[in-house]
Design brief:
Elements (H helix, E strand, L loop, with lengths): L4 E11 L2 E8 L4 H9 L5 H8 L4 E8 L2 H9 L3 H5 L1 H10 L19 H6 L1
Antiparallel strand pairs: 1-2, 1-3
Length: about 120
């Protein structure tokens, strides 16, 4: 028996609240576990996603146990932060904004309320 693997499934479109599913293959065979999900013998969420005709993609597969799976579940928005597809879409949609940076002149304090509160 090989070491367990934690995997992340990405749904091609949202299913109600969900865009991702995190699971663990205790025997290390993620492809077998994915086939079970797609055949309707895994998670009820993945079964509903497949029944709705939404494509399911395996996007991440790392060695880990139920502890790692639980840590991923306990992090809000775990899928989007970990998913390579979501990260690439997010980075291509973001614009970098440059804000003007003011330097403080020697001997003068800025007259902002925050400076007064911090002093």
């Amino acid at each position: 028996m090989s070491e367990p693997h934690v995997y992340l499934l990405h749904f091609a479109q949202r299913y109600h609240h969900a865009r991702h599913y995190v699971g663990v293959a205790l025997d290390g065979d993620v492809q077998r576990r994915l086939a079970e999900h797609l055949a309707g013998q895994g998670s009820p969420l993945v079964r509903a996603v497949v029944a709705a005709g939404i494509a399911v993609h395996l996007v991440l597969d790392v060695p880990g146990d139920r502890g790692l799976e639980r840590r991923w579940h306990n992090t809000h928005g775990h899928g989007a932060a970990l998913c390579p597809r979501c990260r690439s879409q997010r980075s291509s949609n973001l614009l970098q904004l440059r804000l003007p940076i003011r330097t403080r002149r020697a001997g003068r304090r800025p007259s902002t309320l925050l400076w007064r509160l911090a002093a």
